[in-house]
TrEMBL record:
CDD domains: HATPase_UhpB-NarQ-NarX-like. It holds the Pfam family HisKA_3. This is Oxygen sensor histidine kinase NreB. Residues 170-197 form a coiled coil. Member of the two-component regulatory system NreB/NreC involved in the control of dissimilatory nitrate/nitrite reduction in response to oxygen. NreB functions as a direct oxygen sensor histidine kinase which is autophosphorylated, in the absence of oxygen, probably at the conserved histidine residue, and transfers its phosphate group probably to a conserved aspartate residue of NreC. NreB/NreC activates the expression of the nitrate (narGHJI) and nitrite (nir) reductase operons, as well as the putative nitrate transporter gene narT. The keyword Membrane applies.
Length: 407
């Protein structure tokens, strides 16, 4: 019988040793009862002394050899203790046959210390034969005694074997359960690690989107304004350059505020100070001033309904508009842009249309900005639609479920 290892405390110990205190109590109680009952059996001084001495030997063997075998599972102490156990039982039962009830604890200890079933069967057979011989000696070696003891010996052997097989099944099931628990704990740890990694990746993606939609676009504006200012200065135009420098300062301040907001939270600074409608119009005015493109903002729903939208949805709509304007700046060469915000069929939507060069859908792989927009919108349960035709502009529409906050 192999030892059962637990993934928690007591690893490397047989499953039954976790109830060792109970086995101690049963052994010492039965041994004490045997010694006490022997004094009522009128054994005589010599036989009583021999009986008591054998009890002491058995108790000492259990305390100093048996416990070592239980804890270490070493073969030599295990065999030594069980042989002493069988010998002591033969003496005790030969002197006082009523001691036969010690067979209960002896049979259990033999099986519990066995390495396999064959060993258990052999030692159980030795125990039954030894005890039967002691009983036969006590009865006077007659055939009548033999035939009266034989059924009891057979029953004892069968009970011992059944008991051993039951113990084997219990230990095997306990071992399988311990292995299953260990596998479940390992799977739980792996799942927790996977969830942690997924959370880290999601946080990185969200941070990347925020940086792309705010700081990166602000830096792009600063670069373009600086180039325009440099060109005007080279031509001697100081007034235009001053206006460009003022715009650069404003954009840099906004970027600084956005960076601080990213450190503290993910709510855009603009939305914390104004409504979504006001922020969209400011974005349109600044974009027009930087690029010369005519940008209009049209509301297809009352402004108070826009303000009632949850902050998270307003952020998605604002970032989508910013990304669409960034694409217009970089690729469209447009002269007009229309931003429309509306509500229909339980969904709020924002649409950005330009009259730029357009492109053939599918011929251009989406860059990080468009992918980030899709990821942000899909996290909110929405969709992104992009329609474009070469020479006829581009339309980007973002639709997300409309959930208004309680006021």
């Amino acid at each position: 019988m192999g030892s059962v290892q637990s993934s928690r405390g007591g690893a490397g110990q047989p499953v039954w040793t976790r109830t060792l205190i109970g086995w101690h109590i049963v052994f010492w109680v039965l041994l004490g009862m045997t010694l006490a009952l022997s004094f009522l059996g009128n054994l005589g001084a010599v036989r009583q002394a021999l009986f008591a001495g054998t009890v002491v030997v058995l108790g000492a063997a259990y305390q100093f050899i048996g416990l070592r075998a239980i804890r270490s599972r070493q073969a030599l102490p295990s065999y030594a203790y069980r042989l002493v156990l069988i010998a002591c039982l033969m003496v005790l039962i030969g002197i006082y046959p009523q001691s036969v009830f010690l067979m209960f604890i002896a049979s259990a200890q033999i099986w519990l210390l066995c390495a396999d079933i064959r060993e258990g069967v052999g030692l159980s057979l030795l125990l039954v034969l030894g005890v039967g011989t002691a009983q036969l000696w006590s009865a006077g070696w007659g055939w009548d005694a033999f035939w009266s003891i034989l059924p009891w010996m057979l029953v004892s052997l069968v009970v011992s074997l059944l008991f051993g097989i039951w113990i084997e099944k219990v230990i095997t099931q306990s071992q399988q359960r311990a292995e299953l628990i260990e596998q479940l704990e390992s799977a739980r740890d792996e799942l927790a690690e996977a969830h942690h990694s997924a959370g880290v990746m999601a946080e990185r993606e969200r941070m990347a989107r925020e940086i792309h939609d705010t700081l990166a676009q602000g830096m792009t504006s600063i670069v373009m304004l600086a180039q325009a200012a440099s060109a005007e200065l080279s031509q001697g135009g100081t007034d235009g350059a001053s206006a460009r420098l003022a715009a650069i300062e404003d954009t840099a301040r906004e970027n600084l505020a956005e960076a601080r907001a990213l450190v503290a939270a993910f709510t855009p600074v603009a939305l914390s100070e104004a409504t979504l409608t006001e922020v969209l119009r400011r974005q349109a005015e600044r974009f027009a001033a930087e690029t010369g493109v005519d940008v209009q903002v049209w509301l297809d729903l009352p402004d108070d309904e826009v303000a009632a939208l949850p902050q998270a949805q307003q952020v998605v709509l604002l970032r989508s508009a910013q990304e669409a304007l960034a694409n217009v700046r970089k690729h469209a060469a447009a002269t007009q842009v229309l931003i429309t915000l509306g509500l229909s069929d339980g969904r709020v939507w924002i649409e950005i249309c330009d009259d730029g060069t357009g492109f053939t859908p599918g011929s251009v792989s989406g860059g990080f900005g468009l992918n980030a927009m899709r990821g942000r919108v899909e996290e909110s349960g929405g969709t992104v639609e992009v329609e474009s035709t070469p020479g006829r502009g581009t339309r980007v529409q973002v639709l997300i479920p409309a959930v208004q906050e309680d006021v």
